Amino acid sequence: MRVQLQTSESQSRTRRGTMLTVIAVLLVGMSGLVLALFHVTRSSGSAQRRDRENTHALYVAGAGLSKAVFSLQSGHSGALGAADAPVTLDQSRYYVRQEDLTSDILRLTATGIDDRAVARQELVLRRVPTTVWRYGAFGREFLHMRSNARVDSYDSELGTYTAQAVNGSGSMQHGRSNGDVGSNGDIGLDQNAKVWGRAMPGPHHINTILGNAFVTGSTSPAPELIEMPTVSVPTYPNQGALTVSNATTIPAGDRTYTNLTVNGNQTLTITGPANVVISNLMVSQNSQIRIDATNGDVQLWVLDNFELQQNAQIAPTDLKSRHLRLNLLSDNVINPELNVRLDTVSFESNSKFYGTILAPSAAIVINSNFELFGSIMARSIDLRSNARFHFDEALLRVNGAGNPTFETISWREVPYAP
Question: Global pTM?
């Protein structure tokens, strides 16, 4: 009996030991699972935190770009903060750098910082000036450049064109490369024609570039039609006709002439500020009209015939195109429905013009070796061989109606490098 009891107790202890061993093993296993789950949860939490910080850093960089664009549109710089002095946004930070790639293209690089995460974004923009004077030459119906016709640019606020035309030599000599040409219709370049800038035909229109003619910038069509400015003619006291047979000065003020003729080898000086309306204007061979803009600019309206004969010149005394605007009301295009006498519009060989020309109803033919410094807009433009146009980039700034707008060229995320 005693032996049976001892055996029973021994078996009971063995079962209890086995159970304790199993329980211990289970507890160790559960502890391992809990520890593994803790590590997984902790790792997942760290990854989620890193993802959250990275995403937030991207958002902060994007917010910096938005703020920089707003600053540009307000007429200020797009550069905000600096690496060692970032702008604070809630509990994050950012800074934006601005680089001017050309006179009208710039790059903004924004860096967003959130805790330990850093992200960077890049935005490339093109300035779209509010002024109409953004082309070296713009022909509403078409623009045609014949053999060796050339268009480039310079900035009259930086000095003369000659001082800036230091690139290339011979027929390749040029100044800066923002001499854009444009049209609401087609653009054609004959052999050896050269554009140091963009050639932008109208929407759904084309560029025809023959042989070794070239355009250094974009040849893509413009996204929308360019609206030609309208010309309103003011009314001033009529001074009758004026013929300049010796050195003559017109004083500052507003006036009208029926006919104004500058005889050969003579000089007419117009003192600004002045507005002058002229029925017919002839600048004879080897003569010149000088614009004295010391005290103000000069604007001319020519209602009918305009002739700038060979070796003649119209220019401000300081050669800055912003001081002179010529409005041509001339209509020299045949309308089959009307029987009228056509106006004469003549830009002859070896002559020069410094200023802006607006001729919404005239088909302009620029003869060989003519040189324009400034900008021209007309119904159509045909540049004959060796005609040279030099767009004055200063017009983008001084004749604007307000701050420029901006169009996006590209956007991308870029790797961060301290």
Answer: 0.73
